[in-house]
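Friendly challenge for the regulars: who can give me the structure tokens for this chain first? No prize, just bragging rights.
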Amino acid sequence: MLIDPATERFVQRLLDRHRVMALATVRSDGFPQATMVAFAHDGLTLFVAVDSDSQKARNIRRNGKVSVAIGRDQRDWNKITGLSMGGTARVLRKADEIAWAKSLLGKRFPQMKKLGEADDYEGWAFIEIVPLVVSVLDYRKGFGHAELFELWPKPRARR
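First reply, four minutes later:
Bragging rights claimed.
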């Protein structure tokens, strides 16, 4: 089913509250590789910055199918909320797209500015992740409660 406005707001709040996610990419041998990455978002579109020669970046260049999981450790299982998304990722190439990703990540993570001047991010890959499906977990509605939503047409960044 298509995502409704109330659920989309719930997802936005989760994205606003979390700064780290698990990103799963497809390795060359077909196995998934999951790693933790910091992220920023514009609407439901996610942005990450990684080393341009990292396995994550190489995997995405070869196969853009990804999955992400976002949540927090909860002592009380009845309070678990989170989400997983499946979508497509790409390494940004256009200067304006890279500038937008840097802007979003820089606002969320001011320490990025210490890692490189505005135009000095040589060796970095800025990645855009466009989710196509989202599974929303909300155990407050019952143990294991999850709902799957399609995001179609593809969500657009709010730029």
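Helices lie at 5-17, 55-62, 95-108, 112-115. The chain has a mean pLDDT of 88. Your move, everyone else.
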